[in-house]
Amino acid sequence: MAFDSLNILAACVLFAASVGAWRLAVPLRAGARLYLRFSAMLFAALAVSLPLELSDIASLFLLPLGAASLMIAALARFAAPLPVFAASLVLISGLAGGLAALLSGAIMLALAPVMFAGLAIIAAALNGLAVMPILAGAALLGAGLVFLEQGAKAGLFLFCAAALIGLATPSFNRQKSALAVQQ
Asked: How far apart are CA 166 and CA 149, in angstroms?
């Protein structure tokens, strides 16, 4: 078993970011906190899969599901929370994309939920006028693009860590958006 030290370091950073996101999610409302913690658990599992040499297979399954969970957390935090049925459909679509990619070998099936989730996070963060979550959505988009490159595990892990921490950090901008004022 030959390990690349950069990949090990990036996996450790992702695991630490998962633990940090779990702790930073404490003051959030339950709708955002639960899904953020779920995605932190999924990304921690992705980090742990590297020493077991399962990260290529695990990323096909865990990345779309974790991205869908991050999207639900961002919508609950910065826009209107999704109803339970819609949140279930989002999670099922992420799971279906990951499983279909795993069974067929078509990586684009796993990439589509990740890209959609990144764009939805950016849109929700723009609605809430929060800068760090916009960058977290961009980091999730970057993770999806790095996911296409098979040998770039370190980049995938670091972009996932940035997305987790970016969504878990508290927003310092407490202004209401124009959409929230109209409602």
From this structure: 23
Q: How far apart are CA 121 and CA 72, in angstroms?
A: 8
Q: What is the pLDDT of residues 82-95, one digit of tens each?
A: 999 999 999 999 99
Considering Cα of 39, then 40, then 44, then 46, what sign does the dihedral take? positive
Q: Residue 127 has what pLDDT?
A: 85
| Helix, coil or strand: residue 9 | helix
Q: How far apart are the first and last CA of the chain?
A: 58
Task: Say if CB 179 and CB 127 are below 8 A apart.
Answer: yes
Q: CA–CA separation, 81 vs 127, rounded Å?
A: 13
Alpha-carbon gap, residue 37 to 177, rounded angstroms: 26
142 vs 146: CA distance, rounded Å:
6
Mean pLDDT in residue range 67-88: 92
Contacts of 156 (CB under 8 A, 6+ apart): 59, 63, 143, 146, 147
Contact 39, 22 (CB under 8 A): no
pTM for the whole structure: 0.86
Closest CA to 74 of 110, 106, 28: 28
Kindly report, residue by residue over 132-160, the tens digit of the pLDDT: 989 999 999 999 899 888 767 888 999 99
Does the structure show a pLDDT above 90 at 38?
yes
